[in-house]
Specification:
By secondary structure, the protein is of the alpha/beta class. It contains 11 helices and 8 strands. It has an 8-stranded mixed sheet, with helices on both faces. Helix 4 packs across helix 6. The longest helix has 18 residues, at 172-189.
Length: 331
């Protein structure tokens, strides 16, 4: 357990670790324990949401999505979801869940995405992209890109305001969001004039192949270690990362050659995390390219703290900052 944690976060770490499968490398067991842990922290949907299930056609079959739409934003003549009201458009966050590209699904982050939609008063579209090692890179990125394309090409189907589309995620999902953002920027620079993203919301993101100081300083941080990160990357790639992999911005977004003309970003890193320095490193690169960025390294918080937002005052304050950032990006 990490030194210096307040009592609420000590309890959060202890309870979360009680679901771990120490001593096993069986991925089915690891996924089962992860799902049980997520279920433990799940809460009922807020009353001000309509939650809809759907799917988007992907490169290898349908990609499940879940839409969280604030009820206050639903007009009385658009209750029938099969009869879209073209005038009804919502600021929308396209969200990719964390889990090291290996764990997680729509249910694992259901309460988190529901609370983001409810509290920020934006529509959230969560994506159940394919997981490694059954589907190695670029499967997850291809699925995330397919959903982004579907929304930008047919925003009326999703009731999305094409002038107010934000992309985001946590951990591996934040990496996927940053990569999609870079790809979309490059396509626009080629003259295709696709709708531009308005913002990025990156929560304890995994962004770089560089051996930043936090990889060593927080190598054995609570709930997530540097060896865990390395294992997840190996699963994602289907092999040990090569020198070529480490320079591919579609895998490690911070390795891009150009960060200009990207949308405004809010980046929230956690101090007790091997990825603690990824956020500041990316912030510096975006700012140097003239991109508007707000960022924070949350003191006393660890990777995965989103699930502590209802039990820890420190985590609740950090979540409130993310909600406010999402409101600001969608304003």
């Amino acid at each position: 357990m990490g030194e210096g944690l307040d009592k609420e976060l000590q309890e959060f770490v202890s309870v979360s670790e009680s679901f771990s499968t120490q001593g096993t490398s069986d991925l089915n067991d690891i996924r089962a324990s992860y799902n049980l842990m997520c279920q433990h922290y799940n809460t009922p949907h807020p009353n001000n949401l309509r939650v809809l299930e759907g799917a988007v056609e992907g490169p290898e079959g349908d990609i499940p999505i879940r839409v969280y739409r604030p009820i206050e934003a639903i007009s009385t003549d658009a209750v029938n979801e099969t009869a879209p009201n073209a005038a009804e458009k919502h600021p929308t966050l396209l969200y990719f869940h964390g889990g090291g590209w290996v764990l997680g699904d729509l249910d694992s982050h259901d309460a988190i995405t529901a609370d983001l939609a409810s509290q920020a008063k934006v529509q959230v579209i969560a994506v159940d992209y394919r997981l490694a090692p059954e589907h190695v890179y670029p499967a997850a990125l291809d699925d995330c890109w397919a959903v982004y394309q579907a929304i930008t090409e047919n925003p009326e189907i999703f009731r999305a305001d094409s002038d107010c589309l934000i992309i985001g995620g946590d951990s591996a999902g934040a990496s996927l969001a940053a990569s999609v953002t870079l790809i979309a920027r490059d396509i626009n620079l080629l003259g295709f004039n696709a709708p531009s993203l308005k913002g990025q919301l990156l929560i304890y993101p995994a962004l770089t192949s560089e051996n930043l100081p936090s990889r060593t300083r927080q190598a054995q941080a609570p709930l997530f270690s540097t060896p865990d990160l390395d294992n997840f990357i190996d699963y994602y790639l289907g092999h040990k990362a090569t020198a070529e992999d480490k320079q591919d911005f579609k895998i490690f977004p911070a390795q891009a050659d150009d960060f200009s003309k990207l949308p405004a970003a809010f980046i929230s890193a956690a101090a007790l995390d091997p990825l603690a320095d990824d956020g500041p490193d990316y912030t510096d690169k975006l700012k140097a390219a003239g991109v508007q960025v707000r960022s924070i390294v949350e003191p006393g918080l660890m990777h995965g703290w989103l699930r502590a937002r209802n039990s820890s005052p420190r985590a609740a304050e950090a979540f409130a900052r993310i909600v406010q950032a999402l409101r600001d990006l969608s304003a």
